[in-house]
Amino acid sequence: MRYQISGRQIDIGAALQSHVKDELNDVVEKYAERPTEAVVIFSRSGHEYACETTVHLSTGLTAQARAHATEIYASFDGCREKMEKQLRRYKRRLKDHHRDRSQPVELAEASSYILAANGDAVDSEPESLQPIIIAEMETAIQSLSVGEAVMQMELKGEPLLVFRNEKTGGINVVHRRDDGNVGWIDP
């Protein structure tokens, strides 16, 4: 597994890096079969340290956790516990439904745009119907089954997920509805 451990405007020592690698490796190998990458970012806000951890698995799932504490080691320990809880909850589902996946999830490239919000009043007419593009980025669209897509959306804590359906090859969307259920759009 590849580790990327860094700090935002703080120095991360070798002792903290080795602690993070050892502890995270134990958790990930216990609950995930084929981890590929772990990104750990430490930052400081006032008197608190924050730790953000993202672990990418070959099944296409991405587990994310964040924790705050007054000490940097305690912030990582809290983050590790949240990550362990997430991976433990999803281990049975992944093991039962996706045991026969031998290859990593395929990714397709797509463009992602951020459009400027209209700061004018609701009643006023825009000058043109062309929105202002603030940023353009590359985004990876995963090739997943519908069940995997729902689990990925829940792991990320996102309101929706765009994915390529493995069975049909078409672009699909799963989303969290206002009533708490999950919606699936299959055009």
From TrEMBL:
Cross-referenced CDD domains: RaiA
Entries under Pfam families matching the protein: Ribosom_S30AE_C, Ribosomal_S30AE
GO molecular function term, any single one: ribosomal small subunit binding
GO terms under cellular component: cytosolic small ribosomal subunit
Cellular localization per UniProt: Cytoplasm
Keyword presence, Cytoplasm: yes
InterPro entries reported in the protein's UniProt record: HPF/YfiA_ribosome-assoc (IPR050574), HPF_long/plastid (IPR034694), RHF-like (IPR036567), RHF/RaiA (IPR003489), Ribosom_S30AE_C (IPR032528), Ribosom_S30AE_C_sf (IPR038416)
Entry annotated with the keyword Oxidoreductase: no
Domain Sigma 54 modulation/S30EA ribosomal protein C-terminal: 130-183
GO process terms (BP): negative regulation of translational elongation
Major subcellular site: cytoplasm
Keyword field: Cytoplasm, Translation regulation
Function per UniProt: Required for dimerization of active 70S ribosomes into 100S ribosomes in stationary phase; 100S ribosomes are translationally inactive and sometimes present during exponential growth.
Family, per entry: Belongs to the HPF/YfiA ribosome-associated protein family. Long HPF subfamily.
PANTHER family: 30S RIBOSOMAL PROTEIN (PTHR33231:SF1)
Assembly: Associates exclusively with 100S ribosomes, which are dimers of 70S ribosomes. Interacts with 100S ribosomes.
Protein name: Ribosome hibernation promoting factor
Source organism of the structure: Actibacterium mucosum KCTC 23349
